[in-house]
Design a protein that fits this description.
Layout: E1 6-10, E2 13-20, E3 25-29, H1 36-41, H2 45-50, E4 54-58, H3 76-88, E5 94-99, H4 101-112, E6 117-123, H5 134-147, H6 151-157, H7 166-177, H8 182-190, H9 199-203, E7 209-214, H10 221-230, E8 235-239, H11 253-264
Parallel strand pairs: 3-4, 3-5, 5-6, 6-7, 7-8
Antiparallel strand pairs: 1-2, 2-4
């Protein structure tokens, strides 16, 4: 059965979510430029988790079928959306699973709304500082605003030793920008620093915490290292042959998620 699109008002922004299954609630948060389908459904992860839990996937503001404002309504508002989604669903607390940007949202929700979170699992994400990669996000914001391109970000995420060609950049940009609004993504980039966390904030986390990271993920590896250092109770899974993008393609990823949820349920 196909999950039905649902919507709720999150502090003035209309957000879309879908849900299916029964049991303890699990909220899924996708990465930057992605959406529910291209973050979870297409990889069969939504269905796999839904066999065991009440799985809820959110289109982040500025993404997917959620509204895409161009103003300064991102940053802290993005993890506030998680708490407002739980309020809308009358859910006291949930397990959080976030990929990349969604991991930043999940980690911040865990820090700022600890009573609402049962456990947290980060995929291709970790404990990024507020001032990390500030130049990158400034360059990305300018690129999206002026020419509608993600090139600065794609060059950083590119896992090959050789830099991508202009043809490769154009192909990746076309794929990642499909269905996206460049000015909304630029607005997300403008406030991305607000998704950074401090050492003290990470150390304050008491709930179960796990990070799954590709061994070839040059971008998020340092953040994963920091997470496990600052939160000693966190567990970690390194995935061989996976980079920032290909982690979602690994068939064992769904098993890792379900196994962790079963351990902490």
């Amino acid at each position: 059965m196909t999950a039905v699109d649902e919507y709720f008002d999150s502090d003035g922004v209309k957000l879309r979510y879908i849900e299916q299954g029964y049991g303890e609630p699990v909220v899924l948060m996708h990465g930057y430029t992605r959406n529910i389908e291209r973050g979870w459904v297409d990889y069969k992860l939504f269905d796999q988790i839904g066999e065991f839990y009440r799985v809820i996937a959110l289109d982040a503001r500025g993404h997917g079928k959620s509204e895409k404002p161009h103003g300064d309504v991102y940053g802290q508002q993005m993890y506030g959306d998680v708490a407002r989604l739980l309020d809308h669903l009358n859910v006291d607390s949930a397990h959080l699973v976030g990929y990349s940007m969604g991991g930043r949202m999940a980690l911040n929700a865990t820090i700022h709304y600890p009573d609402r979170v049962r456990s947290t699992m980060l995929l291709a994400a970790g404990a990024g500082r507020p001032d990390d990669a500030s130049e990158l996000w400034e360059d990305l914001q300018e690129s999206l605003t002026t020419v509608g391109q993600l090139h600065p970000l794609m060059k950083v995420l590119w896992s090959s030793r050789n830099p991508p060609s202009e043809r490769q950049l154009a192909a990746m940009n076309a794929n990642l920008m499909e269905g996206n609004d460049p000015l909304a993504l630029a607005a997300v980039a403008r406030q991305y620093a607000e998704l950074g966390v401090t050492t003290a904030e990470v150390a304050s986390i008491q709930t179960p915490l796990q990070v799954v990271i590709g061994e070839d993920d040059a971008v998020a590896l340092a953040d994963a290292d920091r997470l496990c250092h600052d939160a000693p109770h966190a567990t970690r899974i390194n995935v061989a042959g996976a980079d920032h993008f290909s982690l979602l393609l690994k068939p064992q990823l769904g098993t890792y998620i379900v196994d962790f949820l079963q351990q902490v349920s």
